[in-house]
Design brief:
Elements: E1 9-18, E2 21-31, E3 36-41, H1 47-54, E4 62-67, E5 70-71, H2 75-84, E6 85-88, H3 100-110, H4 115-128, H5 144-155, E7 162-166, H6 174-189, E8 193-197, H7 201-204, E9 209-214, E10 217-222, H8 224-231, E11 236-241, H9 247-254, E12 259-265, E13 268-273, H10 276-286, E14 290-295, H11 299-309
Parallel strand pairs: 3-8, 3-9, 6-7, 7-8
Antiparallel strand pairs: 1-2, 1-4, 4-5, 9-10, 11-13, 11-14, 12-13
Helix pairs in contact: 3-5, 5-6, 8-11
This protein binds adenosine-5'-triphosphate and magnesium ion.
Magnesium ion binds at residues 47-48, 90, 166.
């Protein structure tokens, strides 16, 4: 695969090794300017490692990487990439024991921003996130959601083209998550490229496309709708037991005689019949035991099937 022209991010056969361990392996994709690109995968799938490469922080072991039109070839190109990208890291957002103003001043000085530009940009960003507390507030006294928004502002002080957000809403309230996503959408509408990881399916649903990682490899890449359609080409049913079904019978249903996938959801099951005939056979045998209704697959169904269930 050739690097995609004019892409915000283009990655071809990316590999990152830590010793003998392949944390990222043979990963290829590109992200269009202005796209909201979601990165999904279980813990340890290689999401943060890929982001560190794309931010110019980690030299890849193999493959070709181009970010904001700059090929990642050397330390010098990494420095140029860093000027074009903003990064809100998974673990660290802001210094708790500094004020909001001190945090932003510190970021501005690391970025060597000119003072007039910095002050103008800070005001723009405070307006954008509707920050209404004194700048002298200690970061540790901010509510979690507001801390994440100030952190987003800090990552954008130098007006980057591409913004990497690694689990930006982990642990904040659902109202704060909603506000954060309205900010993300408005940034994308104004031409910024957003690269975001999240474990919240309702958030990932709002991405233009989603890349699904498993054990360092990219196993699917499509729009939320496309992922659902390709993962569940046949109807998906929700089965509700009418009696207590013994474990051995559930295991029998998991065998591929009837279903391509059969997953427990609390006390119910989501099941995708192998064929129309296998569904009829199931009904003939089990219609006394289960109520059934067709449901639309969610991204959670997709994730469980592709990442956790692996065709079970
Ligand atoms: N510097 C390192 N040295 C050795 N192994 C590492 C290093 N950084 C990451 N790893 C390993 O690489 C794998 C991928 O880690 P990574 O942090 O990219 O996963 P992730 O998809 O971001 O997971 P999470 O959802 O938990 O954030 C993990 O097994 C991790 O332990
Ligand atoms: Mg991570």
């Amino acid at each position: 695969m050739q690097p995609t022209l004019n892409a915000a991010v283009s990655v071809t056969e990316l590999g990152v090794d830590f010793g003998n361990f392949k944390a990222v392996n043979q990963v290829s994709f590109s992200v269009a300017p202005g796209e909201i690109f979601g990165f999904l995968g279980a813990n340890g799938a290689g999401k943060t490692t890929t982001i560190r490469v794309l931010c110019g922080l980690l030299i890849p072991t193999r493959g070709t990487v181009t970010v904001a039109g700059i090929p990642y070839l050397s330390e010098e190109s990494a420095d140029r990439i860093k000027e074009k990208v903003g990064y809100m890291s998974q673990k660290f957002t802001l210094y708790n024991d500094l004020t909001v103003a001190e945090n932003l001043n510190f970021t501005a000085s690391l970025r060597k921003l000119e003072r007039t530009y910095y002050l103008k940009r800070k005001k723009e960003l405070f307006d954008f996130i509707t920050f209404d507390k004194p700048e002298s507030t200690m970061v540790k006294d901010l509510p979690g959601g507001m801390k994440q928004q100030v952190s987003l502002a800090a990552s954008m002080l130098h007006n980057p083209e591409i913004i990497f957000l690694d689990e930006p809403t982990a642990g904040v309230t659902s109202a704060a998550r909603e506000k954060f996503w309205s900010l993300i959408k408005s940034l994308a509408k104004n031409g910024k490229t957003i690269f975001v990881t999240s474990h919240y399916m309702d958030e990932v649903e709002q991405c233009d496309r989603i890349a699904l990682m498993r054990s360092g490899e990219l196993i699917a890449l499509d729009s939320p709708k496309g992922l659902k359609e390709s993962t569940f080409p046949h109807p998906l049913y929700e089965l509700t037991p009418k009696r207590k079904i013994p474990y051995s019978e559930i295991e029998a249903l998991r065998s591929p005689d009837y279903f391509d996938s059969f997953q427990a959801y609390g006390l119910r099951f989501h099941a995708s019949p192998r064929t129309a005939q296998s569904w009829n056979e199931f009904l003939m045998r089990y219609s006394e035991d289960f109520d059934s209704q067709i449901i639309q697959p969610t991204l959670e169904d997709v994730f469980i099937r592709l990442v956790e269930g692996q065709n079970r």
